[in-house]
Amino acid sequence: MIEIEMKNAVTYCLAPDQQNSEAYYRGVWEFTDEVLGRASDSLKTNVSEFTEYLRKYKLEELRNDEEYILELLSFGLLWKTYSEYSLTVRMASFLTLSRMAEWRKRHQTLKPAIDLARGVLVTLFLLPSGRIRKTASLPSLHDVDRLCLWLEATGEFREQALRFVRWQGYWETMPPSRWAEGCAAVFKFVDWFIARSEETIGQYTKNVEGFLAESGDRYRWREDRVQCSRSRPEYHLNMVGAEIMNRAFRQDFKNTDAKALLVPGCMRACTEEECEAERVSEGLRCKGCLPECHVNQLREMGRKHNFETYIIPHASDLSLWSPQAGSTTTRSGGRRLRDDTCRGRMGIETVWCLCPVRSPRPQRMQEALA
To answer: What is the pLDDT of residue 9?
Structure first.
């Protein structure tokens, strides 16, 4: 069995009373089964009508129902968490911040300056401290559009925003009464999830509120303020979301021709300035400068188990693994290269950075390598 864990996490710990994290993975597996079981009843109509809409207009290759359930759960939770902000922000701020998020990926030399400017703009416009607009119990479709724009502008929820836009297109075909009925079912399910997740997996996120209370001023003007200020239910959503996506992609991932491991920059044993990793088209490639560095240890493990290791400094850099000209993407999220080699990807990520839609991110190394 191969497993790498980062202990003494500030906001969460996957092994609070154990020698390893096996209890956590077992608990998340069981809670995910409970979530999907309850959703199959309460959200069944929403999902079946949406998949029929996708099939009718040939908008995408249909995926399993569990992924669509996860998207609805994500929408409802993010609405409850961020809608008041999204309805307060002006349109110009959305567009400016979305473009800046793209610029920081394209122009690495300008990234520090762009991050500094984005940190100020995020606090002033995306997370204003006053004059917050109160939201109605059920959003209008215009409100949904505003939420999607806000999520994309943060640079942290781009994948979610893209998925929600497709749901919005489906919701626009509904009569108002059906929209209200379906929306109410989603929010009722989200309320249950928030309460039940604290009972079942809340022991792993007990430090989140304390971290948020103590670190508010530290992150106030930083570009990653939204990422580092996730609520406790969002942690739980990402834990369950990762489990759902792992199940959805596991077999297809095992069938890919080659494997790549994507790791966050925070796993490095030194600072970004000191790290000797070289920049390549897929991200940063470790050069093995420090034996004690976790990334270097994974690189050595990759040589034994036949996978490559790349550092992804920021969540937005995952776009480097999006389909490029001359390449396609398999249903599993594997990237098909110009030489027709399909390379599957697995990721190690902090819970607050997980994107619980579309991207395959196995949580344990031994699961991916079994």
So the answer is: 45
Task: Choose among 279, 195, 271: nearest CA to 232.
Answer: 195
> Pick from 220, 241, 262: which residue ends a domain?
241
CB distance 52 to 65 below 8 Å? no
Verify that 223 and 174 share a domain, yes or no.
yes
- Provide φ and ψ at 271, rounded to 5°: -75, 165
Tokens of 4: 């790498």
In tens, the pLDDT along 71-130 reads: 999 999 999 999 999 988 877 778 888 888 888 877 878 888 998 999 999 888 888 876
Range of the domain at 171: 22-241
Is the sign of the CA dihedral 32, 38, 40, 46 positive or negative? negative
User: In this structure, are 56 and 148 located in the same domain?
Assistant: yes
CA dist., res. 299 & res. 330, Å (int): 25
Task: Quote the tokens at residue 150.
Answer: 């806000």
Question: In terms of domains, do 122 and 208 share one?
Answer: yes
How large is the average pLDDT for residues 281-310? 90
Question: Does residue 77 sit in the same domain as residue 36?
Answer: yes
Q: What gap in Å lies between CA 78 and CA 147, rounded to an integer?
A: 9
Instruction: Strands of 146-277 (E only): list them.
Output: 258-264
